[in-house]
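To: structure subgroup
Subject: Chain for Friday's discussion

All,

I'm putting the inputs and outputs inline so they're searchable in the archive.
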Amino acid sequence: EVLSFFKATQDDLTPPTPDPKKPNKTYLTFESKSNDTNEEGKEKPDDLEISAPILLETYRAIAAFTPGGKTELGLEEGAHVDVVEKNMSGWWLVQGDDKQGWCPASYLEPLDQPEERD
């Protein structure tokens, strides 16, 4: 039902598998300079530019969280996670230990000092 509401591309339905040698700590986004397309309907390569990397904020779990569904990420007290998205509902999309999922924001606190992130 959701897929019929949003127009999904094949890349959306089958994202690339993560490379275990390269941890996913930053993201690059691409912005089109114009709406020009070539004969195949694809944007011309020189029309894309890479935006600056998005640096993720690192937080610490203040309590253990047990996931209640497949989209939630379990946390152990003291675990460090990177916040990918902060949702107004109070649930944040986080990643840690090569896994990604939602957890309640109330279980997380920001790291105080930069040296804590190492």
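Points worth raising on Friday:
The mean pLDDT is 74.
The two ends are 43 Å apart (CA to CA).

D.
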